[in-house]
Amino acid sequence: VQLTFTILLDLLGTFAFAVSGIRHASGKQIDWFGAYILGLVTAIGGGTLRDLLLDVTPFWMLQPHYFIVTGVALLAVLLFKERMLKIGSTLFLFDTIGLGLFTVVGITKSMDAGLPVWVCIVMGTITGSVGGVIRDMLLNQVPLLFRKDIYALACVAGGVVYFTCSFLKLPMGFTEVIAALTVIVFRLIAVKYHLHLPQLKAINRKPKSL
Amino acid sequence: VQLTFTILLDLLGTFAFAVSGIRHASGKQIDWFGAYILGLVTAIGGGTLRDLLLDVTPFWMLQPHYFIVTGVALLAVLLFKERMLKIGSTLFLFDTIGLGLFTVVGITKSMDAGLPVWVCIVMGTITGSVGGVIRDMLLNQVPLLFRKDIYALACVAGGVVYFTCSFLKLPMGFTEVIAALTVIVFRLIAVKYHLHLPQLKAINRKPKSL
Amino acid sequence: VQLTFTILLDLLGTFAFAVSGIRHASGKQIDWFGAYILGLVTAIGGGTLRDLLLDVTPFWMLQPHYFIVTGVALLAVLLFKERMLKIGSTLFLFDTIGLGLFTVVGITKSMDAGLPVWVCIVMGTITGSVGGVIRDMLLNQVPLLFRKDIYALACVAGGVVYFTCSFLKLPMGFTEVIAALTVIVFRLIAVKYHLHLPQLKAINRKPKSL
Predict the structure, then answer these.
(1) pLDDT score of B208
(2) Residues of C in contact with B17 (CB under 8 A)
(3) Euclidean distance between the first and final Cα of chain C, in Å?
(4) Inter-chain touch C142–B137, beta carbons under 8 Å
(5) Which of B169-178, B187-196, C78-87 is predicted least confidently?
(6) Choice between A113 and A2, residue whose per-residue pLDDT is larger
(7) A117: exposed, middle or buried (C-beta count within 10 Å: 0-12, 13-18, 19+)?
(8) 3-state secondary structure of B199
(9) Which of A35, A138, B65, C137 is the most exposed place for a label (fewest CB within 10 A)?
């Protein structure tokens, strides 16, 4: 049951992130194939870095699901454009759901590799947030991650909840759902109430470079 | 013979991509050493990501050829600048040749690693196109790959031809040449006749960020 | 003794690079957590790429030192902002010290992996300079590395000195200090006397793209 559930989380997160990447590509003179690649990179970028760091075969090489789901996401965006226009905050919501699901997938996979708790939380954060960072870098923007702390911080919060549930010996599927919900709710609340950490003020008026 | 031929393709592709990277660096306040590094990254970036994904030793660590060829490419650009100025489309041609050659090298290497056909085609596309993507990211531009679909799509077409020839049991060297030519011709025709996929139109007028 | 000394170099370099990354984040609407991540990436980015290329476990997964040192660096910047403002060139100095220390750490680690001399020098250069390149890419700037050659060239010089000392059978700790100082002094002199390689002039007035 646990394995199946993790796979489901994974596919849902892939779809959510792919839609997010494809929609970020819209209106920027990027064609359908470019949008597909951006969606794919957003969806599999974080997990790929995680697998390279863990020295395991990148997950998407083992089965073509992720490429197919991204194709479905592109089709959905092309077909339901109008409807998505009406639901104004869909993009934001998709990103947040993907963040929660992927963070949990990343933590579970790192735990299975027998890594210490703090490394698992870092890996969960990488899995959840690096895809979006690569997306922003490819679109030539300073990653939102650096301007809105709640993004990565939500992953860390989810990781702490995950290991608290784990410590309390709660069932695995339950732990995963609670941790993913923590990430999602944490981020939704932060955005709704404009919670944020202070920004780092300018230090040098005229910084000596490098 | 096959091995020698693959090596020759590889060196030619390296030279072509290195020239492309170095020429993209020109006129952007980048010095000779910076240009050398940009040429090198363009040439070896795609293959390095492929080897990291395949979990084999990055090809350029095994022999210094690639660093030497890039040096020759820098010298050639410095010496024959004027002549290259006259041949207006050299840069474009070099990029396209590199794309064709590297795609084939990437597919062959992945086949030798025993991977399924679709993964081999993805690896060929990565080998051919990621160097240029990293080059564009370093130069702070949205990668051309995302705006001109024919780039990556040509790699996919080459991959399909490669496996069709392979399925027909044609000789290896022949298969490689045909596949590389497919990529090159596909791209040349697409650019000459302005073929392209539709672009993804703006979806949200005022997108909710992240 | 050698191991301890290398660890000390490593921690010092981490602190130096983390401060550099955090200070680059200042004044750019990046919050504390974003600044922490930028500092971390600047500090561990080069070594992480090196370890991925060498196919060994990324160094920071083995102990939490690097995350803690980066936290200390963030605290230092937040507390001593004013003082750091007065010392105008601190940022530059920190970057240069980190460069020297990390280059040596990278070379030593690659030598321990039994790699040829030229690969070790490349790995030292990657360890020293890639963190800053990723930092600049994340901040959406053309990496300074490409505009100021002395950066990467100083690493190469340090590598040559390292292997000259090694060839002369000088003690390891001594060799490491001399090589790190070479990088640092080489760069300081180059910046003080405005030494630089010629830049690559524009080749095409109207470049055919891709």
Answers:
(1) 46
(2) none
(3) 52
(4) no
(5) C78-87
(6) A113
(7) middle
(8) strand
(9) B65
* Neighboring chains of B (3 or more beta-carbon pairs < 8 A): A, C
Q: Extract the residue ranges of chain C whose pLDDT is less than 70.
A: 1-3, 6, 82-91, 148-149, 203-210
Comparing C-alpha atoms, which of B97, B79, B103 is closest to residue B158?
B103
CA of A32 to nearest chain B CA: how many angstroms apart? 6
pLDDT of B161 higher than 70: yes
- Rounded Cα–Cα distance for residues A191 and A144 (Å): 13
Residues from A contacting C (CB-CB < 8 Å) are 52-53, 55, 115, 118-119, 122, 133, 137, 140-143, 145-149, 152-153, 196-204, 207-210
**What region does B198 belong to: left with phi over 0, alpha with psi -120 to 50, or beta?**
beta
Which amino acid, B158?
G
The alpha-carbon gap from A170 to the nearest alpha carbon of chain B, in Å, equals: 32
The average pLDDT across B103-132 equals 93
Out of B74-83, B195-204, C44-53, C179-188, least confident range: B195-204
Element (H, E) at A136: helix A117-138
Rounded Cα gap, residues A184 and A154, in angstroms: 8
Q: What is the pTM of this model?
A: 0.90
- The ipTM assigned to this model is 0.86
Q: Which of A143, C17, A33, A125 is nearest to B137 (CA)?
A: A143
Amino acid at A101: L
Question: Which pLDDT value is given to residue A96?
Answer: 86
Q: Beta partners for C199? A: B31
Whole-angstrom CA distances from C41 to A123, C19, C100, C159 are: 14, 11, 18, 23
B143 neighbourhood in chain A, CB within 8 Å = 138
Residue C130: left (phi > 0), alpha (psi -120 to 50), or beta? alpha
Using a CB-CB distance cutoff of 8 angstroms, which residues of chain C are in contact with residue B151?
210
Contact B143, B132 (CB under 8 A): yes
